[in-house]
Amino acid sequence: MLSPEKQTLIYKKIKEDKYFRKEYLKHFFFRYCQYYFREYFSFWTPPALLKYYKALEEWRNVYFEWFRWCAKTTIAQMFLNYVIAYKLRRNIMWYSQTIDNAEENLTYVANSFIWDTDWGKRFVNDFGNLYYPETINRKGQKKIKRLDKFVTENDCYVRAMSLGTSPRGKNYTAPDGKFRPDLLIFDDVDTIASTQSQKKIDKNFEFMLNEVLWGTTSNTQIIFLWNTIYEDWLVPRFREHIKWDKSREVIFLPIYDDYGKIIRDRFVETDEEAMEKNKFITEWNKKYTSLQSERRRLWSISFEQNYLLKPFVQGMHIITRDMIQRFRWSEDMKFDTIQIWVDPAVSEKQGTDYFAITVVWFKWENRYTLECIALQGRDKNIKNACQIVKQLYIKWKANRVVVETVAFQQVLKTIFMNMWMATKEVKTHKDKTTRLMEKQFLFENLKVYFAQNPWCDLLVEELLSFPNVEHDDRVDSMLMALTDKWKKFFISTIW
Hints:
There is one protein chain. The protein has 495 residues and is of the alpha/beta class. It is 35% helix and 18% strand. The chain is globular and about 70 Å long. 33% of the residues are buried. The model is unreliable at 297-314 and 487-493 (pLDDT under 50).
């Protein structure tokens, strides 16, 4: 343990001496991240993540099974940046369920070398430009949109891979030698798409055993980053298979057992229950912790998407009343980004889906729902619905209309654009229940607000009853509004 004076001296040299900094941080991955990616360290780092950093630093094979949105993928991306910067791994493969997901992660890593960000500037200052896109010259660096593979200036090869593609035989020939795959990262391969049938689960498990574990060398480092969804899927099988392997670092934090009983020590359901149990406990390491506080501390835990949490049962609601935040709108409020989200339904028959329109104001990380209108019956005809959207667009001076497009509904995008409204179309690939579960953390962290008016009251009641509700179109249009705001838009000439 270094003395405070010694630590202060080291921190000073890290800050001031480029050559000392590079050599010192080579041996401390966590401190490397703190220096070059300091924007990610505005929150206290949970112990399990410190364990994750340490395992990577010691070049161990890591099996990390934890909550969604707990930064395990981000840390793996930073690790790629680290091993490439010091040329510690030469043939790297990033696996995801689909090639698109793998390419997204590779693109982020490539951009961390060149992109005009605070960490990019610090990195380039110390290591130089390690990657130049082929499509632009070296003086015109800009953000890369999508990559499936790339070779860095210091001869490290990185490739995007999909589940089922074997690493065998995919060697990289560099000027200084030939390199077999020496770093494999598997990120979220246990998904809805990969578990559609027992046959697919069996195939994926066989691939992991025969092609990954037995197709690598002793020098290959393997990192598994997975969320468990159901106990019968790929992740639990693989966890059971490697449980006696002492060479692998297993980071696994269960909360509930198969019967819904809490199995973690000193862990209870609610803040109130934890406070009651902690009344006469003075030692901090013996105090009880609540699931509610754990969710807040870890930014997000997706509801039902991880079997570590209580499973969803019929009659259970995803959003509860204590998660609903209200605000009172006034004409003095200054709006910076307002978007209108449309979930269309044009059939005029009674009992069919509503034509839902939600107006959302984005302020920092918060989403403020200003209005939510659901058109029924004859009010849903295209002409009337488009006029209402236009009226809301003018009323709130909106930046964009975002419309969900499926089949014939795609014509609405053209109509909105012809009415001089900036328009963006989106397509949803998941059911409403799953999408709301994934956004539950926004409500838990008090990032979603609803105006005090009758339109929002109806939305709130529908939200509290979901998924056990007859009509959920208001929820659907609001779900689209919970995604990140679209930053690019053309200037409308409607006003």
